[in-house]
Amino acid sequence: MLITLDEAKDQVKIDRDDITQDDELTAFILAASSRLEEELQRAVYLTRSDITTDDPDALVLDELRHGGEGLKLALKLMIGHYFRNREQVVTGTIVSNMPEGFAELTSSYRLIPYGGRT
User: Fold this and answer.
1) Tens-level pLDDT at each residue, the chain (118 residues)
2) pTM, two decimal places
3) Residue boundaries of the structural domains of the chain
4) What is the 3 state secondary structure string of the chain?
């Protein structure tokens, strides 16, 4: 996982010793990681040793400036968003979208296909 369970708990202000929401937070971590890869149009790994296939477009967090902390922050924003907005429709409130910081933090890493690649 790109974000640890403890990092996710810190983001949503849950005590690290509280295990009652671990399964749900793990699902949010995986969903946010998937959303990140969809946005970037490339696979993201923590370290080069995590890559199991030949993937020339892979993005390795520990090889990025500051260890990919910007992308990790984008993941934390999404995890917090998923945690606070667990239902598709929330009545009696203003409609909210994906956190604005997510797009800003991820845009410079997005792979833009060219030359017939999809």
Assistant:
1) 999 999 999 999 999 999 999 999 999 999 999 999 999 999 999 999 999 999 999 999 999 988 899 999 999 999 999 999 887 665 666 655 656 788 889 988 888 877 655 5
2) 0.82
3) 5-109
4) CCCCHHHHHHHCCCCCCCCCCHHHHHHHHHHHHHHHHHHHCCCEECCHHHCCCCCCCCEEHHHCHHHHHHHHHHHHHHHHHHHHCCCCCCCCCCCCCCCHHHHHHHHHHCCCCCCCCC
